Every structure is written in structure tokens, then in C-alpha cells.
């Protein structure tokens, strides 16, 4: 299949991504940025994102990154290492961690900072591997947090690789709309309908903002990170200023108040109110109409308060905002080129 000219290859502070060999495929809106070193025969699905804008991302041969999946680092603190023959399913997130060879990360699964995944492990769909967790290879893990449920042999493991890879679509066009003014609107982000953004807003790679017949409002200084999905019916999504929406978050009609963070892979149901000064943990899910009260950390499915906000957590939230404004300032003016694949040579 031909290389899609809408794929994105961008340096970060002068460092360009490196490939040991041309990727087998780079779909519409696939983005590779910064200090990434990627092995041979990579398959980069539509709107997939590999961001090495701080520490490095190192990936082995035969890496398969499905549509709207995200690989990222933790600023300049933690890198991401992914070994050979790893498959990451749609809307999955591999974040600042180590993933050994032959692993499968299924649809909407999340691996968080400092985790180490042994060879041949399967992280089941919608599971969350908590920070600094070490998981032994050769097991299927499921849940929040991910726990071992059964052993898997080589044949079963390869079947899971092939099933995920066979399901992927290719060659999809990305509708490029820019009705909403934004400090940074990534080239592969899409915006549809009535969307209003304040100053210094960042809408990152692969995001989809669809206001339907309603509206989406995003306040000053807020960042909506890679591959997040904001979708209204006829209602409103209202996000205040100085909010962080993490990678691969799903928001329906809701309100998120200032100085809050919605963690990686969280799902915010219709009618939810996230009050100010709240941390929604990675992988959490709210119930329709739920109110997440101020000053708390909320986690689980459904989300429940598990602790109080403290100075360390508030410091982490406040430091994320200028960091993302800095990223946005860089990538807004960065050079963009298509990702060269075997078919484009």
C-alpha cells in the first residue's frame, strides 16, 4: 500500500527520529517525533503517535502500533524501551516504561511510568499496569491494576498478535479542520463543530474533537494530549483553564473545572462534573452524572475517592502545564515531513 503523505515526521530540538529500516506502513496522521529510534518493519497505524520530546524512545524490530495508540516518555525523567515483535492495540498507551519482546498490549490498555513488562506477556483490553509494577512474562494480565489471570503459551501468544494486526484498517484519510483557534493544533488532530479554545491551548496528535450539535469549550492554558476523544451529542463539554487531559482520554458531555488532571485512558461519562483541584487516576471511569468532589484523588471503575490532594500532587499538576506549553511552542513551528516507508522508496 502507498505511504500516506499525511504522516508526520518531526524533530525535537534538532534531533530527528531514526529508523533502522523504512517502516512497512505509516497511516494517515501517524506521527513520530524527536528522540525516537525505531527498528525494522514498523507498522504505524492511522493517527498513532510516538513522542520522544524529552527522554528517548527506543523500539525494536517488527513493532506494530495500531490506530490512535500512543507511545510517550515522562519529560526528561523516564524513557520508553520496547523490544522486538511487540503489538500495541487501538487506543492503547505505552508510557515511560519497559516492554520486553513478544508482548501484546490490547485495545485501550495502559502501561504507566516505570513499569517493566516481561517477555511474552499480554496486557488485556482496557487493563491498567500501575507505575513501577514488574510483570512476569508468559502471563495474561487483566484488570485495574492488571493482575495475572492465566498462563499463555507461544501459540496462543502469536494468535493474539495476529488477531490484533489483522483487525487494523489502512489508508484512512484524516479530515483536517481548523474551525477552532488554538495555540497548538497538531496536524493530525481533527475538530468538528462549535469548538472554542482559549489562549495557549494545546490539542495534540491524533485527538478527535467532535461537538456534534452541541459545543466544546476549552479554557486558557489547557492541554488535551495525544489521541484523546472528546465527543458531544447535543450537549456541552466544558473544560476550564489550566486543566490537563491525558493521553487517550474519552470525554462525553461533562464539565472539568480548573487545576484538575484527567489521567491516561480515563473515561468521563455524560453529565460528569470534575470539580477543581481533582486528580482522576489513569484508567478510571465515571458514572453518568457523577460529581467528583474537589480536593480528592478519584480512581477505579466506577471512580471512587482514594485519597486527598496534597502538595506533591498539586506540584505535579502545576508543572505539567508549562511543560506542555513549551512542547506546543516547539512543535507549532517545527519542520514536518512524511514518514518514509518501504513503498515510498
Automatic annotation (TrEMBL):
SUPFAM superfamilies in the record, alphabetically? Answer: Trimeric LpxA-like enzymes (SSF51161)
Q: Does the keyword Zinc apply?
A: no
Source species, domain of life: Bacteria
Write out the entry's keywords from A to Z: Transferase
Q: Name one GO molecular function term.
A: transferase activity
Asked whether the UniProt record includes Transferase among its keywords, one would answer yes
Q: Which PANTHER family match?
A: DYNACTIN SUBUNIT P25 (PTHR13061), GAMMA CARBONIC ANHYDRASE-LIKE 1, MITOCHONDRIAL-RELATED (PTHR13061:SF29)
Record-given protein name: Carbonic anhydrase/acetyltransferase-like protein (Isoleucine patch superfamily)
Amino acid at each position: 500500500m502507498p505511504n500516506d503523505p499525511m504522516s508526520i515526521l518531526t524533530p525535537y530540538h534538532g534531533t530527528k527520529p531514526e529508523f533502522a529500516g523504512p517502516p512497512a506502513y505509516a497511516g494517515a496522521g501517524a506521527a513520530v517525533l524527536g528522540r525516537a529510534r525505531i527498528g525494522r518493519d514498523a507498522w504505524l497505524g492511522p493517527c498513532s503517535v510516538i513522542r520522544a520530546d524529552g527522554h528517548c524512545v527506543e523500539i525494536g524490530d517488527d513493532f506494530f502500533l495500531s490506530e490512535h495508540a500512543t507511545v510517550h516518555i515522562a519529560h526528561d525523567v523516564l524513557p520508553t524501551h520496547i523490544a522486538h515483535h511487540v503489538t500495541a492495540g487501538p487506543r492503547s498507551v505505552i508510557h515511560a516504561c519497559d516492554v520486553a519482546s513478544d508482548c501484546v498490549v490490547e485495545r485501550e490498555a495502559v502501561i504507566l511510568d516505570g513499569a517493566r513488562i516481561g517477555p511474552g506477556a499480554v496486557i488485556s483490553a482496557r487493563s491498567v499496569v500501575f507505575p513501577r509494577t514488574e510483570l512476569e512474562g508468559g502471563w495474561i494480565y487483566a484488570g485495574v491494576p492488571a493482575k495475572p489471570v492465566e498462563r499463555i503459551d507461544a501459540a496462543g501468544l502469536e494468535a493474539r498478535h495476529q488477531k490484533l494486526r489483522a483487525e487494523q484498517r489502512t489508508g484512512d484519510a484524516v479530515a483536517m479542520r481548523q474551525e477552532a483557534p488554538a495555540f497548538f493544533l497538531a496536524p493530525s488532530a481533527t475538530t468538528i463543530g462549535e469548538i472554542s479554545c482559549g489562549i495557549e491551548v494545546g490539542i495534540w496528535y491524533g485527538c478527535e474533537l467532535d461537538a456534534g450539535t452541541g459545543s466544546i469549550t476549552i479554557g486558557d492554558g489547557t492541554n488535551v494530549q495525544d489521541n484523546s476523544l472528546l465527543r458531544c451529542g447535543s450537549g456541552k463539554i466544558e473544560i476550564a483553564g489550566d486543566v490537563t487531559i491525558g493521553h487517550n482520554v474519552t470525554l462525553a458531555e461533562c464539565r472539568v473545572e480548573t487545576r484538575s488532571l484527567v489521567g491516561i485512558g480515563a473515561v468521563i461519562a455524560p453529565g460528569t462534573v470534575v470539580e477543581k483541584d481533582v486528580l482522576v487516576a489513569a484508567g478510571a471511569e465515571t458514572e453518568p452524572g457523577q460529581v467528583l468532589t474537589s480536593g480528592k484523588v478519584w480512581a477505579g471503575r466506577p471512580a471512587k475517592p482514594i485519597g486527598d490532594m496534597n502538595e506533591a500532587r498539586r506540584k505535579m499538576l502545576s508543572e505539567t502545564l508549562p511543560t506542555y506549553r513549551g512542547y506546543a511552542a516547539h512543535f507549532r513551528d517545527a519542520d514536518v515531513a512524511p514518514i518514509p516507508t518501504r513503498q515510498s522508496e
